[in-house]
Design a protein that fits this description.
binds adenosine-5'-triphosphate; single chain; 7 helices; about 220 residues; about 20% strand; alpha/beta; globular; binds magnesium ion
């Protein structure tokens, strides 16, 4: 599969000839230099973007053939995203942030709070539920973001440099948490520049100039 961006009158091939099969329950790390296509690949895996050539299958279905409603339901139900810079809403409390994906899903409102508190418990943050994001450490903010990704119980957790803004001790805590979630059955795909973090995955795919340069099993 390929993803070509139009920049003015020129084409930029962010991905080309990428052939990747991710197993249910796998933990995969994506590495590669800046501009090699990691975020582009993650966006396609998360059904936020589509290949311009080739096909993306999710749970065996061709994503390009899904209508908008089915696609947004699929994203909401099956995929959780975690970013380097947390992306928490500053005016909401921690537990309200964690609830937000449920507001776009099918679950009744009376379930939102208990589910959000349960997700906070899974990341060890139940005692911070009423805090504002500005009152959290970086590690706590990222745990909140992970709880928000988990609250819909997605099959697939995607993380784009989740430890990029954290010191190494806090980054290790987040890495341990991702390992736990993987052990509990989540499929985890993470982009990282950190060799130690990548080595904790079952498979490491290295991108260069939009193609897969190598695949390793640490
Ligand atoms: N929306 C866009 N429009 C045009 N070009 C884009 C767009 N998004 C990404 N690109 C280009 O596609 C290529 C891959 O970008 P991508 O963001 O996937 O890289 P990356 O590996 O995530 O880099 P980084 O490590 O810096 O986050 C780069 O050349 C980038 O400039
Ligand atoms: Mg990126």
């Amino acid at each position: 599969m390929a993803r070509v961006y139009q920049r003015g009158s020129t084409d930029v091939a962010a991905l080309s000839g990428v052939d990747l099969d991710i197993r249910d329950g796998e933990k995969l790390a994506i590495m590669g230099p800046s501009g090699s296509g990691k975020t582009t690949l993650l966006s396609i895996l998360g059904c936020l973007d589509r290949p311009t050539r080739g096909e993306h299958l999710f749970e065996g279905r061709a994503v390009a053939e899904l209508d908008d409603d089915t696609l947004s339901q699929l994203r909401n139900r099956a995929i959780g995203f975690v970013f380097q810079s947390f992306h928490l809403l500053p005016h909401l409390s921690v537990v309200e942030n964690v609830e937000t994906p449920l507001q776009y899903g099918q679950r009744p409102p009376r379930e939102w709070r208990p589910r959000a508190l349960e997700a906070l418990e899974r990341v060890g943050l139940e005692q911070r539920a009423e805090h504002r994001p500005s009152e959290l450490s970086g590690g706590e903010a990222q745990r909140t973001a992970i709880a928000r990704a988990l609250v819909v119980e997605p099959r697939l957790l995607l993380a784009d440099e989740p430890t990029g803004n954290l010191d190494s001790a806090t980054g290790t805590e987040i890495a341990v948490l991702l390992d736990e979630l993987h052990a509990q059955g989540s499929t985890v795909v993470l982009v990282t520049h950190n060799e130690d973090l990548a080595r904790r995955a079952e498979r490491v795919v290295t991108l260069r100039d939009g193609h897969i340069e190598k695949e390793e099993r640490p």
